[in-house]
Amino acid sequence: MGSLGFEAALAVCPAAAQAYSKYCGIVSGCENASTREGLVELSRTIDNMEGMRDGIFGDIQKLMSVLELDDARQFSNFYDFVFFISRENGQKNITVQKAVAAWRIVLIGRFRLLDRWCNFVEKYQRHNISEDAWQQLLAFSRCVNEDLEGYDPKGAWPVIIDDFVEYMHRIYRPGDCSSAMASQCSISNTFRGLNLLPGSKRKCPTQFNSSEDNVELSDVPRHSLHLTPLKRLKESSVSTKSGVSECNAGAITNWGIQMTAKE
């Protein structure tokens, strides 16, 4: 985090700025314990302060407005921090409600299918959102266009993303856009990037009923670590849980405003 951005963040939302600074230090290897241990300790410290986690989440938009997040790597780090702060009671996953609220803040202007994605998740997703699904949505938003060009049906996307693509094809297929969504159909009626042949993880389209309400979804059982620009590594890949190598981290010992910004 740049010093100017950190100083501005301290003035606007000090608790959120300090938490993000500590998070950056942990995942970048600047602290003294393992990454996992450091994140666990940071999470405990936040939870020990009543209302702190909710307060930080409430300041995410303010924090974004003053940080320098133009670089893709910096934004990816911030995006992962939002997932971290969205966890509740030590849970590994986050609720659909919390995930949608966070996506609508952090991905606005960065993901052209954001509204349709959020509406889809709210309507059909029955299970909490895993870190893997959270991270892979960012990769999806970067490599797939509005008309789904860039989507590889044979890629190892989380099931929820495969289901979303199938849903989009069914709802917006040529000549069959519902009147309620007609204004959104103009962006594309072709879906040039959608290969209708099912990939290894996809359900065959004939298994779906023509009714929108009968779409069956699955949770994401896998856990990925690194965002990939076009598609993620196969499940057999060996990776660490947080997407970073084992590195050093330390617990928060002081929430004072005197914290030094991490470069």
Name a few traits of the molecule.
single chain; mainly alpha; 10 helices; 43% helix; 0% strand; globular
Layout: helices, strands, pairs:
Blueprint (H helix, E strand, L loop, with lengths): L2 H10 L1 H14 L7 H13 L4 H7 L1 H7 L5 H15 L9 H11 L7 H11 L6 H13 L15 H13 L92
Helix pairs in contact: 1-2, 2-3, 6-7, 6-9, 7-8
How would you characterize this protein structure?
43% of the residues lie in helices and 0% in strands. The protein has a single domain (3-214), classed as Cullin, PONY binding domain (Recoverin, domain 1), CATH 1.10.238.200. It contains ten helices and no strands. Helix 1 packs antiparallel against helix 2, helix 6 runs antiparallel to helix 7 (96-106) and helix 6 runs antiparallel to helix 9.
Short description:
The protein has 263 residues and is mainly alpha-helical. The chain has helices at residues 3-12, 14-27, 35-47, 52-58, 60-66, 72-86, 96-106, 114-124, 131-143, 159-171.
What proportion of the residues is helical, as a percent range?
40-55%
The CATH superfamily label reads: Cullin, PONY binding domain
Fill in the CATH topology. Recoverin, domain 1
Largest sheet, strands/sense/barrel:
none
What is the N-to-C order of secondary-structure elements (H for helix, E for strand)? HHHHHHHHHH
Rg result: 20 Å
Q: Which structural class is indicated by helix and strand composition?
A: mainly alpha
Q: Any idea what the CATH architecture is? A: Orthogonal Bundle
Rounded to the nearest angstrom, the distance between the terminal CA atoms is: 5 Å
Number of helices: 10
How confident overall, as mean pLDDT? Answer: 74
- Report the CATH C-level class: Mainly Alpha
Q: How big a fraction of the residues is strand?
A: under 5%
Tell me the overall shape.
Answer: globular
Low-confidence stretches: 175-254, 256-263
